[in-house]
Protein backbone atom coordinates (compact mmCIF):
# COMPACT_ATOMS: atom_id res chain seq x y z
CA UNK A 1 0.00 0.00 0.00
CA UNK A 2 2.90 2.34 0.72
CA UNK A 3 4.40 1.55 -2.68
CA UNK A 4 1.04 2.26 -4.31
CA UNK A 5 1.23 5.82 -2.97
CA UNK A 6 3.85 6.61 -5.61
CA UNK A 7 1.05 6.21 -8.14
CA UNK A 8 -1.99 7.10 -6.07
CA UNK A 9 -0.83 10.39 -4.56
CA UNK A 10 0.18 12.01 -7.90
CA UNK A 11 -3.10 10.75 -9.37
CA UNK A 12 -5.10 12.47 -6.64
CA UNK A 13 -3.03 15.62 -7.20
CA UNK A 14 -3.99 15.49 -10.87
CA UNK A 15 -7.65 15.19 -9.86
CA UNK A 16 -7.38 18.37 -7.80
CA UNK A 17 -7.03 16.92 -4.30
CA UNK A 18 -5.00 19.28 -2.12
CA UNK A 19 -5.16 22.27 -4.46
CA UNK A 20 -6.47 24.51 -1.69
CA UNK A 21 -3.46 23.74 0.52
CA UNK A 22 -1.18 26.52 1.73
CA UNK A 23 2.01 24.83 0.52
CA UNK A 24 3.16 21.94 -1.70
CA UNK A 25 4.10 19.94 1.41
CA UNK A 26 0.63 20.40 2.87
CA UNK A 27 -0.92 19.46 -0.47
CA UNK A 28 1.13 16.26 -0.53
CA UNK A 29 -0.01 15.38 3.00
CA UNK A 30 -3.66 15.92 2.09
CA UNK A 31 -3.37 13.76 -1.02
CA UNK A 32 -1.51 11.04 0.88
CA UNK A 33 -4.21 11.08 3.55
CA UNK A 34 -6.99 10.50 1.05
CA UNK A 35 -4.95 7.85 -0.75
CA UNK A 36 -4.39 6.03 2.54
CA UNK A 37 -8.16 5.90 3.08
CA UNK A 38 -8.75 4.53 -0.42
CA UNK A 39 -5.91 1.98 -0.40
CA UNK A 40 -6.49 0.66 3.13
CA UNK A 41 -10.22 0.29 2.54
CA UNK A 42 -9.56 -1.55 -0.73
CA UNK A 43 -7.02 -3.81 0.99
CA UNK A 44 -9.46 -4.66 3.79
CA UNK A 45 -12.22 -5.53 1.31
CA UNK A 46 -9.86 -7.74 -0.72
CA UNK A 47 -8.50 -9.58 2.33
CA UNK A 48 -11.97 -10.18 3.77
CA UNK A 49 -13.10 -11.52 0.40
CA UNK A 50 -10.08 -13.85 0.14
CA UNK A 51 -10.65 -15.12 3.68
CA UNK A 52 -14.37 -15.75 3.28
CA UNK A 53 -15.27 -19.14 4.68
CA UNK A 54 -11.92 -19.56 6.45
CA UNK A 55 -12.19 -20.79 10.04
CA UNK A 56 -11.44 -18.14 12.66
CA UNK A 57 -9.83 -20.63 15.03
CA UNK A 58 -6.65 -22.54 14.26
CA UNK A 59 -6.63 -25.31 16.81
CA UNK A 60 -7.53 -22.80 19.52
CA UNK A 61 -10.09 -23.34 22.23
CA UNK A 62 -12.64 -20.55 22.13
CA UNK A 63 -13.57 -18.90 25.39
CA UNK A 64 -17.24 -18.04 25.98
CA UNK A 65 -18.37 -14.65 24.73
CA UNK A 66 -18.58 -13.19 28.24
CA UNK A 67 -14.99 -14.16 29.06
CA UNK A 68 -13.79 -13.03 25.64
CA UNK A 69 -15.45 -9.65 26.17
CA UNK A 70 -13.60 -9.22 29.45
CA UNK A 71 -10.30 -10.08 27.78
CA UNK A 72 -11.07 -7.62 24.95
CA UNK A 73 -11.51 -4.79 27.45
CA UNK A 74 -8.56 -5.89 29.57
CA UNK A 75 -6.49 -6.17 26.40
CA UNK A 76 -6.65 -2.42 25.86
CA UNK A 77 -4.93 -1.84 29.20
CA UNK A 78 -2.50 -4.73 28.65
CA UNK A 79 -1.43 -3.20 25.33
CA UNK A 80 -0.95 0.26 26.86
CA UNK A 81 1.01 -1.23 29.77
CA UNK A 82 3.21 -3.27 27.42
CA UNK A 83 3.79 -0.14 25.34
CA UNK A 84 4.73 1.89 28.41
CA UNK A 85 7.13 -0.76 29.77
CA UNK A 86 8.84 -1.19 26.40
CA UNK A 87 9.11 2.59 25.91
CA UNK A 88 10.75 2.98 29.32
CA UNK A 89 13.22 0.17 28.58
CA UNK A 90 14.11 1.85 25.29
CA UNK A 91 14.53 5.23 26.98
CA UNK A 92 16.21 4.32 30.28
CA UNK A 93 18.32 1.33 29.23
CA UNK A 94 18.90 1.81 25.52
CA UNK A 95 18.95 5.60 25.37
CA UNK A 96 16.30 5.78 22.64
CA UNK A 97 14.33 9.01 22.69
CA UNK A 98 10.62 8.43 23.43
CA UNK A 99 8.11 9.37 20.76
CA UNK A 100 7.27 8.10 17.30
CA UNK A 101 7.93 9.96 14.08
CA UNK A 102 5.47 7.64 12.36
CA UNK A 103 2.70 8.53 14.82
CA UNK A 104 3.54 12.25 14.63
CA UNK A 105 3.24 12.21 10.84
CA UNK A 106 -0.09 10.37 11.00
CA UNK A 107 -1.47 12.89 13.50
CA UNK A 108 -0.28 15.79 11.31
CA UNK A 109 -2.07 14.33 8.28
CA UNK A 110 -5.24 13.65 10.31
CA UNK A 111 -5.37 17.35 11.19
CA UNK A 112 -5.34 18.12 7.45
CA UNK A 113 -7.43 15.14 6.35
CA UNK A 114 -9.79 14.17 9.20
CA UNK A 115 -11.12 11.22 7.20
CA UNK A 116 -7.78 9.49 7.80
CA UNK A 117 -8.83 8.91 11.40
CA UNK A 118 -10.93 6.01 10.09
CA UNK A 119 -7.78 4.32 8.80
CA UNK A 120 -5.61 5.05 11.83
CA UNK A 121 -8.19 4.04 14.42
CA UNK A 122 -10.26 1.33 12.71
CA UNK A 123 -9.26 0.01 9.28
CA UNK A 124 -5.51 -0.10 9.95
CA UNK A 125 -5.75 -2.06 13.22
CA UNK A 126 -8.25 -4.50 11.69
CA UNK A 127 -5.92 -5.14 8.75
CA UNK A 128 -2.91 -5.60 11.03
CA UNK A 129 -4.73 -8.08 13.25
CA UNK A 130 -5.97 -10.11 10.28
CA UNK A 131 -2.52 -10.22 8.64
CA UNK A 132 -0.18 -10.54 11.63
CA UNK A 133 -2.36 -12.42 14.11
CA UNK A 134 -4.99 -14.36 12.16
CA UNK A 135 -2.86 -15.29 9.14
CA UNK A 136 0.81 -15.25 10.22
CA UNK A 137 0.51 -16.06 13.93
CA UNK A 138 -2.41 -18.43 13.35
CA UNK A 139 -0.56 -20.40 10.67
CA UNK A 140 2.57 -20.74 12.82
CA UNK A 141 0.55 -21.53 15.95
CA UNK A 142 -0.90 -24.59 14.22
CA UNK A 143 2.61 -26.04 13.78
CA UNK A 144 4.62 -24.63 16.66
CA UNK A 145 4.17 -23.53 20.24
CA UNK A 146 2.93 -20.07 21.24
CA UNK A 147 6.31 -18.38 21.69
CA UNK A 148 7.88 -19.16 18.28
CA UNK A 149 4.66 -18.14 16.53
CA UNK A 150 4.22 -15.03 18.65
CA UNK A 151 7.83 -13.87 18.33
CA UNK A 152 8.00 -14.30 14.55
CA UNK A 153 4.64 -12.62 13.89
CA UNK A 154 5.39 -9.81 16.37
CA UNK A 155 8.82 -9.10 14.88
CA UNK A 156 7.26 -8.89 11.42
CA UNK A 157 4.59 -6.60 12.87
CA UNK A 158 7.33 -4.38 14.32
CA UNK A 159 9.36 -4.33 11.09
CA UNK A 160 6.24 -3.34 9.12
CA UNK A 161 6.02 -0.11 11.13
CA UNK A 162 9.41 0.91 9.70
CA UNK A 163 10.76 2.38 12.93
CA UNK A 164 13.72 0.07 13.71
CA UNK A 165 14.64 2.10 16.78
CA UNK A 166 11.30 1.07 18.31
CA UNK A 167 11.53 -2.62 17.37
CA UNK A 168 11.19 -3.64 21.03
CA UNK A 169 8.11 -1.50 21.57
CA UNK A 170 6.16 -2.75 18.55
CA UNK A 171 7.23 -6.34 19.27
CA UNK A 172 5.84 -6.01 22.80
CA UNK A 173 2.54 -4.78 21.41
CA UNK A 174 2.47 -7.64 18.90
CA UNK A 175 3.10 -10.18 21.66
CA UNK A 176 0.21 -8.72 23.65
CA UNK A 177 -2.23 -9.02 20.76
CA UNK A 178 -0.99 -12.54 19.96
CA UNK A 179 -1.60 -13.53 23.58
CA UNK A 180 -5.15 -12.18 23.42
CA UNK A 181 -5.84 -14.16 20.24
CA UNK A 182 -4.38 -17.40 21.62
CA UNK A 183 -6.09 -16.94 24.99
CA UNK A 184 -9.59 -16.42 23.61
CA UNK A 185 -9.45 -18.09 20.20
CA UNK A 186 -11.32 -15.09 18.77
CA UNK A 187 -9.65 -12.65 16.38
CA UNK A 188 -12.25 -10.03 17.33
CA UNK A 189 -10.64 -9.76 20.78
CA UNK A 190 -7.24 -8.37 19.65
CA UNK A 191 -9.05 -6.36 16.97
CA UNK A 192 -11.17 -4.66 19.65
CA UNK A 193 -8.14 -4.03 21.87
CA UNK A 194 -6.07 -2.66 18.98
CA UNK A 195 -8.84 -0.44 17.60
CA UNK A 196 -9.65 0.95 21.05
CA UNK A 197 -5.99 1.58 21.86
CA UNK A 198 -5.36 3.40 18.57
CA UNK A 199 -8.51 5.48 19.01
CA UNK A 200 -7.39 6.43 22.53
CA UNK A 201 -3.93 7.39 21.26
CA UNK A 202 -5.40 9.60 18.53
CA UNK A 203 -7.76 11.35 20.96
CA UNK A 204 -4.89 11.97 23.40
CA UNK A 205 -2.52 13.22 20.70
CA UNK A 206 -5.03 15.57 19.09
CA UNK A 207 -7.20 16.82 21.95
CA UNK A 208 -4.95 16.61 25.01
CA UNK A 209 -1.47 17.23 23.60
CA UNK A 210 -1.06 20.77 24.95
CA UNK A 211 -2.26 19.89 28.44
CA UNK A 212 -0.02 16.84 28.67
CA UNK A 213 3.04 18.74 27.48
CA UNK A 214 2.33 21.40 30.11
CA UNK A 215 2.19 18.71 32.80
CA UNK A 216 5.46 17.18 31.57
CA UNK A 217 7.18 20.57 31.71
CA UNK A 218 5.98 21.13 35.26
CA UNK A 219 7.24 17.67 36.25
CA UNK A 220 10.60 18.31 34.58
CA UNK A 221 10.30 15.22 32.38
CA UNK A 222 11.11 14.83 28.65
CA UNK A 223 8.20 16.14 26.62
CA UNK A 224 8.19 13.09 24.36
CA UNK A 225 7.77 10.67 27.25
CA UNK A 226 3.98 10.91 27.37
CA UNK A 227 3.58 10.27 23.67
CA UNK A 228 1.96 7.02 22.61
CA UNK A 229 2.40 4.89 19.52
CA UNK A 230 -0.02 3.80 16.79
Automatic annotation (TrEMBL):
* Residues covered by the CAAX prenyl protease 2/Lysostaphin resistance protein A-like domain: 114-200
Keyword Transmembrane listed? The answer is yes
Q: One biological process GO term for this chain?
A: proteolysis
Source taxon at top rank: Bacteria
User: Where in the sequence is the signal peptide annotated?
Assistant: none
* Any Pfam family hit: Rce1-like
Key words of the record: Hydrolase, Membrane, Protease, Transmembrane, Transmembrane helix
User: Where does the sequence pass through the membrane?
Assistant: 30-51, 63-89, 109-132, 144-161, 187-208
**Keyword ATP-binding: yes or no?**
no
A GO MF label:
endopeptidase activity
Protein name, as recorded: CAAX amino terminal protease family protein
Origin species, per record, is: Geobacillus thermodenitrificans (strain NG80-2)
